[in-house]
Specification:
Strand content: 5-15%
Number of helices: 7
Structural class: mainly alpha
Number of domains: 2
Helix content: 40-55%
Largest sheet: 3 strands, mixed
Order of helices and strands: EEEEHHHHEEHHHE
Number of strands: 7
């Protein structure tokens, strides 16, 4: 797949590397994540958040039990719900709108877990503010996502510049591999 914001990038070319031929596609599934040729992860993140909601609702009866402590609820969130949402996040290219969606999901789940609190001064029940909830939970999904993306980038960088994975990740084509010098059949040869 040729990933670019340019609609015409690689439109008529296929890629050949190490005697393997890759056809041009609009989208593909990689690490459980759907990648599009426009490098848009908007729909993928939306589907992961929907899966997280489904996962939350499947354990909601367990979480509504008064026998469980908040610490155990947080453990359930971190071990059951969060991995569903973050699966394949290494391939996401986050923009502010997507970061906001992830934060909204996390705040919604944490609001349900922590519930309302009683104000010490007035004695009335009120919702926790996001800052108060963050103090209680002290972990942000955005930081986890960005660290996973960087860890994957470091792994690809360690592979070496001569490997196809490195060149595909960083979009580096050698001079003889450039689009201006395609193979006989119109393909790009990466060896």
């Amino acid at each position: 797949m040729v990933m670019s914001r340019d609609q015409n990038a690689g439109r008529s070319h296929s890629i050949k590397t190490d005697n393997s031929f890759f056809e041009r596609v609009e989208e593909l599934k990689y690490l459980g994540t759907t990648l599009t040729n426009q490098n848009s992860t908007q729909e993928e993140i939306k589907s992961k958040l929907n899966l997280g909601n489904v996962c939350y609702h499947s354990v909601q009866n367990l979480l509504s039990s008064n026998l469980l402590s908040k610490k155990l609820w947080i453990k359930i969130y971190r071990t059951i719900i969060l991995p569903v949402v973050l699966h394949g996040c290494e391939t996401w290219s986050l923009i502010l709108r997507e970061e906001h969606r992830v934060r909204v999901f996390e705040n919604r789940v944490l609001r349900r877990i922590f519930g309302p609190t009683r104000d010490e001064v007035t004695g009335e029940w009120r919702k926790l503010h996001n800052e108060e909830r963050n103090d209680l939970y002290c972990s942000q999904n955005i930081g986890v996502i960005k660290s996973r993306i960087m860890r994957w980038a470091k792994h690809v960088a360690r592979v070496g510049k001569k490997k196809g994975t490195y060149r595909f990740w960083w979009g580096i084509l050698r001079e003889r591999d450039h689009l201006e010098h395609p193979g006989v059949d119109g393909s790009i040869i990466l060896s």
